[in-house]
Design a protein that fits this description.
The chain is of the alpha/beta class. The protein has helices at about 15-20, 80-85, 95-110, 115-130, 155-165, 180-185, 215-220, 220-240; strands at about 1-5, 25-30, 40-45, 50-55, 135-140, 165-170, 190.
Length: about 240
């Protein structure tokens, strides 16, 4: 079983979806401390004039050290409506605006006051649209027998052991956290997966890599996105040989 473990990010980039697409099981690591200026609560889309702008979920007051799973969303609709207004400029030029806008609208209408659960529901809706299997569990609900944690990299190893994973997959950003020898001793393959972003022509705008998946879906058909993900899987597997 290939396992992925990540904090819930808000409307993440395509690379996050690539990671999900190669994993058999996904653990939502919702016990990590919330960081207010991070991908946990915001992401990026194109700005109508130039460059990019943030889209951001609004939360209530959050004390330092609060796990992301305990972070509550602001009850008003203002921030949700703001996000919808922020993407309106795509309407003029993006060929898949209507479908993507309706998807985003449905995601933001998710009936939850939990930031983490909203982020995961967005992933669920996007994966369903892209026909990506997404089998996930919230770590806080798993009651796993976790062994000793001596550093940040131990979480992935211990969760992999407890779930019976044979392979753990992580993006390059966390490479330095992991002890490859410890994974090998546990008979778990450690895979650091590099992903080449999908390049496309956003008519009338400058292409900016690693924007939110909603930007990608504004400009690309489901077939194009899936072809890129399939090619990325093939390229990576050939590179491992």
């Amino acid at each position: 079983m290939k396992l992925g473990i990540m904090q819930p990010y808000f409307a993440p980039a395509l690379g996050y979806l690539d990671l999900i697409s190669v994993c058999d099981k996904w653990v939502v690591f919702d016990v990590a401390d919330f960081r207010p200026k991070s991908w946990m609560v915001r992401n990026r889309i194109l700005h109508p004039s130039s460059g990019w702008q943030h889209i951001k979920a609004k939360t209530g007051k959050v004390h330092r050290g609060t796990p992301i799973g305990d972070v509550r969303l602001a009850p008003d609709r203002d921030w949700r409506d703001l996000i919808l207004r922020q993407v309106e400029h795509y309407r003029r030029k993006a060929p898949f605006f209507d479908d993507t806008f309706q998807l985003l609208e449905r995601c933001l209408d998710t009936d939850t006051d939990s930031l983490g659960k909203l982020s995961v529901q967005i992933l669920h809706e996007v994966c369903e649209r892209l026909d990506i299997p997404f089998s996930y569990t919230f770590f806080s609900e798993m009651d796993l027998p976790i062994g000793p944690i001596e550093g940040p990299g131990d979480w992935a190893l211990r969760i992999s052991e407890a779930t019976g994973a044979t392979e753990y997959v992580n993006p390059p950003g966390g490479r330095e956290l992991f002890d490859q020898d410890a994974f090998a001793k546990a008979d778990i393959k450690l895979t650091i997966r590099k992903f080449e972003d999908l390049r496309y022509e956003p008519r009338g705008y400058e292409f900016i890599p690693t924007l939110s998946i909603f930007d990608v879906m504004m400009w690309n058909s489901v077939a194009t996105i899936n072809e890129h993900l399939a090619r990325a899987r093939t390229d990576f597997e050939q590179g491992e040989r």
